[in-house]
Amino acid sequence: MDSLNCSNSSINLAAKITKVDIIVTMVTSCLSLSGAIAIFYTSGRKCYRGRSLSEPRKFLVYLTITDFFIAFGYLYGAVRFLRDNSANYEVKDTGCIAQSFVTTMASLCSFWWTSIISFNFWWTYTCYANDNSIFGSINNSTRKSTWNVKIYVYHILSWIVPAIIIFTALSKGVLGADNSDRTGPWCWISANLSVREQIIWMAVSGKGWEILMYFSCFGFYMLLKFRQMWERSRQKKGKMQEQFGSTSPLIPRTRCNQQPPEHKLSFIFLRIVEIVLRISGTVRFIMTALRRHACISPPFYEHVDVILMHFQSFGDCAQAFCSFLIFCVFRRLFRYINNRNGNTNLSHEAS
Known about the structure:
With 351 residues, this protein is an all-alpha fold. The chain is built from ten helices and two strands. It is globular.
């Protein structure tokens, strides 16, 4: 069956958004804006006092910048949605397109920074855990130069690549009102496009990168765990050789306990929270793609989609607020748990 025929049964979800959804979006966005400002304030105060920000803290600031604009855009979209009586959107409305531009750009940057943080955590641990790594025998100036090159690449990937995607989408006129189909009370991809074009641009401008982020974070985490298990195995073999009187063990001791990443547990927990917050929107996208292109539409589809829309109205706006809770409110708790797990030498705080 043609995908266009499959889409004829879709409903106007904008009419099903309640005032509760709008209020939840507005309140959550305000909490995220406040949390982001708190993170900026604590980071700025640290710089003002002459203390340099640690690498994880810098990444947190970059990520919070993107989450700030996400919350700001969704707050504007919710206010505008309430003012325009829910479903009465003009598809070519400038305010709607501007809000879609800001939130889509910020979301893409957030996905990139999230993946980069996971990669950098694995990379840093690997470099410092291996005596034969590129960081094992170089001086501080070379190490600083390597860091500068790395951070330039990170910024290009996290800001320039999303900018290219979003300006391309803007030039092709694909941003606009979507009648809250796969979103909450805000704008994203224009409902004026064909079904195929909508799905493609939703994947290119957000959901495709989001799904890749899920897999990349999981992949780097598993690589990190395998590396840690390998290092522990090497250490045990080295200790056994020392116990048997070997003065120069065949397996050299590594520096895996001198890993520099701070607040490992905090960043891992933040990744889990972000996935939980955004998974409802991803599931809605997959359900819609299957329904419109494969004509897979179970009888409970509409009911489940509306429920997921309610969760998405909260989750997509709450990322900066959750970062504030993890790195500011419960910072000492995570530090205590992290130290109990054997990371007592991670003395530098990401605060």
